[in-house]
Amino acid sequence: MAQQGSRKKKPAARKKAATSSGRSESRLERADRNLSELLQELRVALPGVQVLFAFLLTVPFSSGFKDLTQFQEKLYFGVLLGAALSAALLIAPTAGHRILFRRQQKEYLVVVYNRFAIAGLGVLALCMCGVILLISDVLFDPLACIVSTGAAAIVFFGLWYVGPLMRRGSLPEID
Description:
- Helix content is about 70%, strand content about 0%.
- It has helices spanning about 25-60, 70-100, 105-140, 140-170, and strands spanning about 15-20, 25.
- The longest helix is centred in the last third of the chain and has 34 residues, at about 105-140.
């Protein structure tokens, strides 16, 4: 005679429905895909912030560092801190994913760490513009500093934010 409580329950079937994006996937499958895409995209950005940070760490040990003006020293330190912040924001999704592994938090990870990635890229763009300003201020006249830094800012923010945000504004919201 079998006990009623020992009977195994069948796992609930995952509901698959075509989303407004046209994909036939469950909510969990979409979260899996979105998190995977986010982590893959961060693999592109991370080497850039790592190289920038490494470059900044070597600058004080170069012979010309002692010749920087107060403005250049403060700019350098601000860019160094910004590069560290950018690295923290861009690496946070990986750390969060590891810590929340197997806790059914992928939707949370996607929402929160998408914001971190966008902020991290913004800080990275500011830091890259800051490095251009620092180097051009050491090498050239003020006009060259303004032109080169302004051009870099236009390129970074135009390609990374303005263009995508303009396109996004013209599209319907998809869940």
